[in-house]
Write the structure tokens for this entry.
Amino acid sequence: MANADAVGTEGKTYDLDVERGKIREFAVATYSSNPDYLEREDAVSPPTFLTTINFWAPPEGNPWKAVEFDGKRGLHAEQQYEFFGPPPAAGTRLRCTSRITDVYTKQGRRGGELTFAVMVTDFVDDTGTVVARATMTGVETARPATEDA
């Protein structure tokens, strides 16, 4: 059962260095042929590049464990990125802070209750400006999935 008291839990702020090589690796991995990602010294990051925070966030930077979803019933439901200017370019250092903003339930179409949790991560540049925001929604089903479902 998800923990509704997780709302407001915030992870420790940490840095994400947007590196040219990592932008290129991400672009290659996602089959991009865009020269802005692959060839420029001042490469801009693809919009979904910020997903790489999952490789760099220290355990104390990720507040998701406070939601207490059952791993056998949890699913990634949605991911959204919002930019407040151009995507970060190579050489940018971003300060990342994640927080749980909502936990709520809905009735599922196949019966059973679904519990949703929302985590928002702000990406702030060295001037203190929020340059991007990621919103991730996870869902926990009422019971584990079965092979015949």
Observations:
- Strands lie at 14-17, 74-83, 93-107, 113-124, 130-140.
- The chain is about 10% helix and 35% strand.
- Residues 28 and 110 are 39 Å apart (CA to CA).
